[in-house]
Fold:
Amino acid sequence: MKLWGGRFTEATDKLVEAYTASITFDERLAEVDILGSLAHVNMLGKQGIISADDATSITDGLSKILERLRAEGLPFDVADEDVHMNVERLLYEEIGPVAGKLHTGRSRNDQVALDMHLYLRDATILIVDKVRDLQRALVDVAEANMDVIIPGYTHLQRAQPILLSHHLLAYFWMLDRDASRFSDALLRIDMMPLGAGALAGTTFPIDREEVAKALGFGQIYENSLDAVSDRDYLLEFLSASSILMMHLSRFSEELILWTSEEFGFVELADAYTTGSSIMPQKKNPDVAELVRGKTGRVYGHLMGLLTVMKGLPLAYNKDLQEDKEGVFDVIDTLVPALTLFDGMVRTMKIRENRLRDAFARDFSNATDVADYLAKRGMPFREAHAVVGRLVLACIEAGTNLAGLPITVYRDASSLFGDDIYEAINTRAVVGARTSRGGTAPAAVSVQLAAAKERLSAKNERARG
Ligand code: ARG
Structure:
């Protein structure tokens, strides 16, 4: 007999039972479901809605089930449809008919919303912690390699040389915004829907503030219809996750390029790479590739839930059961991606020899030749044209700007002196970009200090 079987005279079709059940995936809400029920029953007892004895029996029964869940797991049955009814059935087996008083003044609609808020609150706090760990890894690697220069690109064409630290810290700031997005979403994840009942509230004198306090919620939904049909907090979580995955995917793409022999900037540790079953020489950046690839499923889950929500009338609709698998999958995708990235970044080897040669044949100091003329009074546009012609001369002569004789420079402009060579060596080029947020070691040191300050400041609402 189903918990809701009173008005039915025929058995549920087996396929319908399997199709409508959620226990195969919502079983991971079991712990928060029981914790929510414990707070609810405690309030029912305190308010005199059920007797103190009944509240105690139910509390003891739920505590035993919680212990069993933690020790060995629970025997869930698809015939009981979802985690809420499975737990209630187990409670009945434990304490008998008094179990039936637990659901007083409550519906599965506000119960499942409560469970998701509780579950996602923990997951979000964990993800913010993991983002912070990865930021810390970036700071450490940046700080340990402050003198390493790499080519900087626009259009994936050599643009200007930059510090490797500067490049890594760019990801630090992306992740900083990610952490801040999750922390902000947490304000709305941290809202309690319980007490909304099925949709309209309840006839029992419940105390929602008491339950919210017991469960550590910062806010309570003010509208019962909104409380049971809101999934914005999941959408915000999926949206923050999508942006975070996009950042990790861009970083992955760069690591994949950088580890190729064509770039040769870094080598990933053996522990973070895999081999080929046929080509003995291969060392593949599979982790980075999979993070890049798994970004697709995270975006997909965001689009999936947005689509589930559009056109849903108030209040609860069974469609809302579709909110879970995507969110769980995103958590299961993000958490290991962040953990692996932390280790992968910390253990990667910078190929300094290759990087020293990287500038032998490029023109990434051309802007500095133009800046040299502009600083001596030539309008920058004119200087740009002069240097463009010098680059052409280099290409014809098979050399670079450092290899051009001074006579060629002086033919191009009398403003050139012997100090041009000093001004365009790679280290000087990087060192000259001292503007705030620029790539000069002096500027990157300021940035690094700001990054460390961000990590130590507790200026976000993430709880922990
Ligand atoms: N398993 C359901 C869900 O995840 C729980 C709420 C069911 N409510 C109902 N009225 N059928 O949404």
